[in-house]
Amino acid sequence: MGAPRAPRHTGRRQGVAAAVGGWSVTHRWAAVGIWVLFVVLATVAGSAAGRAEVSDSEEVPGETGRAAEILEDAGVDEPVGESVLVQSPDGALKASAGEFRTAVEDVVRAVEGTGEVADVVSPYDSDTISGDGRSALVQFRMKGDPETAADRVEPVTDAVAGVQEKHEPSGLLVEEIGGASMEKTFDDAFGEDFKKAEYSAVPIAFGILLIVFGAFVAALLPVVLALTAIVATVGLMGVVSHVQPMSDVADSVMLLVGLAVGVDYCLFYLRREREERAKGRDARTALEIAAATSGRAVLVSGVTVIVAMSGMLFTGLADFEAMGVASLMVVAVAMVGSVTVLPAMLSLLGERVEKGRVPFLARLKRGRTNAGGESRVWRAVLTRVLRRPKAAVIVATGALAAIALPAVGMNTANLTLDQEFGDSLPIVQTYDRINEAFPGGSDPAEVVVRADDISAPEVRKAIADFEEQALGTGASKGPIDIQVHDDANVAIIDVPLVGGSDQDEAEKSLALLRDEIRPATLEAVDGVEAPVGGQVAGSKDFNDQLVGAVVPVFLFVVAFAFLLMLMAFRSLTIAVTSILLNLLSVGAAYGVLTMVFQHGWGAGLVGAEGVGAIVAWLPLFLFVILFGLSMDYHVFVVSRIKEARAQGRNTADAISHGVITTAGVVTSAAVIMVAVFSIFGTLSMQSMKQMGVGLATAVLIDATIIRGVLLPAVMSLLGERNWHFPKALRWLPDLEHDEPHEPQPVPTGSAWPPVPADSPLIEGSRR
After folding, report:
1. Could you give the C-alpha distances from 639 to 109, 294, 588, 655, in angstroms and in order?
2. Could you tell me if residue 612 is left (phi over 0), alpha (psi between -120 and 50 degrees) or otherwise beta?
3. Beta partners for residue 481, in sequence order
4. SS (H, E, C) 721-757
C-alpha cells in the first residue's frame, strides 16, 4: 500500500507546472528519455546545419556596415594590412641615414622571404616617413584568406623580430603591427584567459553546491541539468544562426546565463522537494508540491528572464541580437528541463540523491542553523527588519542610493588599446608610437567607392579630388592609399584621420570627410556611392545606434516585466515594487562600476588603474542581464510569501515565512553566480573585467540588501495593500492556477521514508 495522499483542492485549476511535473513523475523514464533525445537531436541538428557567424556588414550598422556590405556583394576580400615601424626613438638616426635605409631594406627582404606577404612597399617609395624624419613605415598585405591571416602571420613577425635583433645595437626600433599580428597577439595573451574562465566556472559551481547540499549526487544534479541545457542550446544556436547569425561573445554570455539559471532553477525545485519530505510527506506528494510551487516560480521567472533578454533584439546591433537570442534560448531550455526531466530524475533517484554525503559539512551547517533548520543569521536579520521596517527601508534605500549616485556622472567610451589591454603588451606600445608619428595611420578611415564604371574619367577625377581635399582641409595628413578593383567597379580609399587614437578628435576628421568632402567630390558624380567605414567610423556608428536603442529597450523590458508580475501575482503593488527594487539594484551596480573604473576607488584591487571610463556597450548590456536575473530571486521569494498567505497566514507571518524559507536557496544561488561572474572580473581585458565586477556586485546586492532587507521591510509597511489589484485590471490573464498545499501529518507506512532531520540536503537547503 502506498502512503496517504495529500488532500486535493478541487476548486482551483491545476497549473501548467503542476500538470507537467505530475506527468513526469508518473512517466519518469519517458521524461528522461525524451530529454536525452532532445539534447542529442539538438546537437546533431546544429552540427548538420553548421553555424553562420555575424558578418562584417552585420556587425555594425550605418555607413560602416554598408561599406562592408558593398565589398561582400562585390566579392572583394580585402587583404589584411600589416606595417613595420622603423624608428630612431632618440632621433639620432634620420630616415635618410645609411643605417636607417639598411634596416628598411632588411625588413623588405625579410618579410618577402616568408612567402606569406604581397605588395610590399618601401617608405621611400610611398613617402611614409614622419615629419620629423625619425620614423618610417614598411607596408604590405597578408596573402590568402583574411579570416586565417592571424594563423599564418607568425613567420612574418619572427622575421621582423630578427631584423630588430640585428639593428638593436644602433638604437633602432623595428616593430610590426597590423590586423593579423594584433589578433594573434591578443589571442595568445587573452585567449587562454577566456578558456580558463569558462572551464573553471563549472567546477566552482559544483564545489559550492557540494558545500550547500553536503552530498555529491545532490550537488551534481543541478550541474548536469545546466550543462545538458547548454549543450542543447549550442546545437540550437547552429540551426537558428541561419536566421540570426551568432558570435563568439554570444557563446560566452550564453554559457554564463545558462549556468546561472540552470543551477538556480534546479536549486529552487530540489530545495522545495527536500523540505516537503522533511515534513513527512510521501515521495510523490513532495514532488507534486514542488512542481506546483517551485515549478510555477521557475516558469514565471523563466518567462520574465526571456522577456528581459528579448530586449537586446531592439538594439539593431548584431552582437547584441546574437546575445539576446542565445540567452533566451538557454533560459527556455533550462526552464523546460527544470519542470520536466528534473522531477523525473528526483523520482528515479529517491534516497540515492543523498549518496556521497560529506559528514563534516553536515556538522558545520548545524552550527549555523537553529532547531528548525533555519539560518540563524537570516532569522536575526529579518527579526530586526520586521521590528523596525520604516528604519530598515530608510537605511537600505539610502545606502543603495548613495552607492548609485556616482552613476549620474558615468562616462562611457570606446576604450583605447591602452585602456583595454594596458601597456604590458609591446604591440600596444607600437600602436601608440605609430599614432604619434603618423596620426590615424593605425586606424584609417576606409572609404568604399562603388560606381557603375569605376574607371570612368569623372569617377577617377572625383577620387583624386577627394584625396586632395582630405589633405588640403586638414582631415588627414596622409599618406592616403587607393586601391581600385576594376572588375568589381569598386575602389577602397584608406585615409589616416587626424586625431589618431583620440576618438573625439578623430571623429571631427571623420565628420569633415562625411559631411563636407565626400558630398563635394564623390557624391557629386551620378551613380556613385561612397560610405565611410573603418575603426573610428565603426565606433561612432555603433555608439549612435546604441544610444538610440536605450529608450526602446528600457521601455520594452520594464513594461513587459511589469505586465508579467501583474499576471503572476494579481497585485498592482507587487508589480510596481518589483520594478522599483530591480531598478535600484541595477543603479547600485552602475554606481560601483563608476566608482571603481571611472574614479579609480579601489581600482588597484581589481587591476583597473587608469581606465577612467565605462565601456560604451556595458550599461545597456548589464541592464538587460541584471533585470532578468534579479527577477529570478524576486519571483521565487514573493511566490513563497504569497503561497504562505494563501494558506491562511497573516501578511506579517507570510513575509517572515517566505523570506526565511527562501533565504538559503537564494543565498546559495547568489554565491554561485557571484563566484562565476567574479572569474570574469579577474581577466586582463578591461571590458570583461567591468562586466564581471558589475554582474557580481549587482547579484550580491540583490540577494542580500534587496531580497533580505528592503523587500520584507517594504512589504511589511504596505501590509494588506500588497495584494491590491484594481477591478479595472482583472481582465488580465490569471497565471495563479497552482493550488496551495495545506500542512499534512506525517504518513505511516510510507514506502519512501522521510528524509532524516540531520540530512545535509535539508540543512543546506535552509541555509
Report:
1. 73, 8, 25, 10
2. left
3. 494
4. HHHCCCHHHCCCCCCCCCCCCCCCCCCCCCCCCCCCC
User: What CA–CA distance (Å, rounded) separates 767 from 749?
Assistant: 30
Cα distance between residue 666 and residue 701, in whole Å? 12
Question: Residue 712's closest CA among 758, 644, 626?
Answer: 644
Residue for grid cell 552585420: 58
Contact (Cβ atoms closer than 8 angstroms) between residue 245 and residue 52: yes
Tens-place pLDDT, residues 701-735: 988 888 888 999 999 999 888 888 888 888 877 76
Strands 412-413 and 614-615, by their bridges, are parallel
3-class SS shares of the chain: helix, strand, coil, % to 5:
70, 10, 25
pLDDT above 80: residue 450: yes
Separation of alpha carbons 529 and 74, rounded Å? 13
Q: And the C-alpha cell for 31?
A: 521524461
Window from 209-213, 444-448, 660-664, 736-740 with minimum mean pLDDT: 736-740
**Which pLDDT band holds residue 412 (cuts at 50, 70, 90)?**
confident
Distances (CA, A) of 18 to 27, 286, 647: 14, 12, 18
pLDDT at 393: 93
- The 8-class DSSP code of residue 191 comes to I
Q: Which residue has the cell 534560448?
A: 329
Classify residue 99 as exposed, middle or buried by CB count within 10 Å of its CB (0-12, 13-18, 19+). middle
Residue 4's pLDDT is: 36
Is the per-residue pLDDT at 93 higher than 80? yes
What would the grid cell of residue 294 be? 517551485
| Neighbouring C-beta atoms of residue 349, cutoff 10 Å | 15
What are the φ and ψ backbone dihedral angles of 95, each rounded to 5 degrees? -60, -20
As a whole number of angstroms, the distance between CA 118 and CA 112 comes to 7
3 state DSSP class of 494? strand
Contacts by 74-78, CB closer than 8 A, 24 or more apart:
74/450, 74/485, 74/488, 74/489, 74/490, 75/488, 76/485, 76/488, 76/490, 76/492, 77/145, 77/146, 78/146, 78/492
- Residue matched to cell numbers 536549486: 267
Q: How far apart are the first and last CA of the chain?
A: 35
pLDDT given at position 30: 93
Q: In what order do the strands lie in the sheet with 490-495?
A: 481-485, 490-495, 445-450, 532-534
d(CA 409, CA 724): 37
pLDDT value, residue 767: 34
Average pLDDT over every residue of 583-594: 91
Residue indicated by cell numbers 565586477 = 693
Q: What is the mean pLDDT of the chain?
A: 82
Most confident of 197-206, 363-372, 461-470: 461-470
Q: How confident is the model at residue 68 (pLDDT cuts 50, 70, 90)?
A: confident
Region 478-503: what's the mean pLDDT?
A: 82
pLDDT (0 to 100) of residue 227: 92
| Cβ burial, residue 692 (10 Å; 0-12/13-18/19+) | buried
Mode of pairing for the β-strands spanning 481-485 and 412-413: unpaired
Q: What is the dihedral of CA 275, 277, 281, 284, to 10 degrees?
A: 110
Q: Which residues contact 57 (CB under 8 A, 6 or more apart)?
A: 65, 66, 68, 69, 72
pLDDT digits (tens, 9 = 90+) for 306-327: 988 898 888 888 888 999 999 9
Long-range contacts of 419-423 (CB under 8 A, 24+ apart): 419/610, 419/611, 419/612, 419/613, 419/686, 420/685, 420/686, 420/687, 421/186, 421/189, 421/190, 421/684, 421/685, 421/686, 422/684
pLDDT in tens, 175-191: 988 888 888 887 777 66
Integer CA distances (angstroms), 747 to 138, 273, 533, 743, 763, in order = 85, 16, 73, 12, 22
pLDDT for the residue numbered 555:
92
